[in-house]
Amino acid sequence: MNKIPALLLVGLLLPACTDQPRTLPAPAESLDPSANVGPSRAELRSIEVYGTVLRRLIMKDHTFGRGLSPFDHVYVLDGVVRNGARWRKMWTIAQPFSEEVRKGLRKELRALPPITFISGARAQRMGDKGMDAGIEGMGVILSVGSIDGQGSRVEVSNSLWCGGLCGQWMTYVLRSSNGRWRITGTTGPMAIS
């Protein structure tokens, strides 16, 4: 009976006596630190707020009255513009979206017309009529400004442009309640063409 515990003890200690270093396998999380990282808290907030703004522009405030959205494709400027509510600035990206924000917005808006993130509006315009040109694929170009404010009330400037006499520029007021952002109104100047 005394031989069994002694054999177990030798069996446990024998590997420790070798000259080969023993290493334990690394946990899966440490093999590739970026593999298991999701959006940061700030990116999640951006996805929620911008998702609310973009959905509203596509589905309700599309300038075509109370009907369904007329757009077959949505082109979103790939980043925060300097002041989305001012038409002369609506194409100037101040801060590009991170890949996490782009992925989150695609997921958040997956039930809407297809979304393409673009670096500028020139390629989507049809023809050479400048601002009178329509948008490729019965589309619309949307831009959003920075999320101004903290806590449960923020403002986001935005623009919608689908050519010629089809555009608008405004700033939405959003409030968070029960973990969900809602547009409660607008503030400042507004332009609709």
Describe this structure in words.
Strands 1, 2, 3, 4, 5, 6, 7 and 8 form an 8-stranded mixed beta sheet that branches. The chain has helices at 3-13, 28-31, 41-59, 99-108, and strands spanning 73-81, 93-96, 115-118, 139-148, 153-163, 166-177, 180-186, 191-192. It has 193 residues and is of the alpha+beta class. The relative contact order is 0.17. It has one domain (34-192). Helix 3 crosses helix 4. A hairpin with a 2-residue loop joins strand 6 and strand 7.
Summarize the structure.
With 193 residues, this protein is of the alpha+beta class. Helix content is 23%, strand content 31%. The protein has one domain (34-192).
Structural class: alpha+beta
Give me the number of helical elements: 4
Total discrete domains:
1
Order of helices and strands: HHHEEHEEEEEE
* 3D shape: globular
Q: What is the residue-averaged pLDDT?
A: 78
Helix share, percent: 10-25%
Q: What layout of secondary structure does this protein have?
A:
Layout: H1 3-13, H2 28-31, H3 41-59, E1 73-81, E2 93-96, H4 99-108, E3 115-118, E4 139-148, E5 153-163, E6 166-177, E7 180-186, E8 191-192
Parallel strand pairs: 1-3, 1-4
Antiparallel strand pairs: 1-2, 4-5, 5-6, 6-7, 6-8
Helix pairs in contact: 3-4
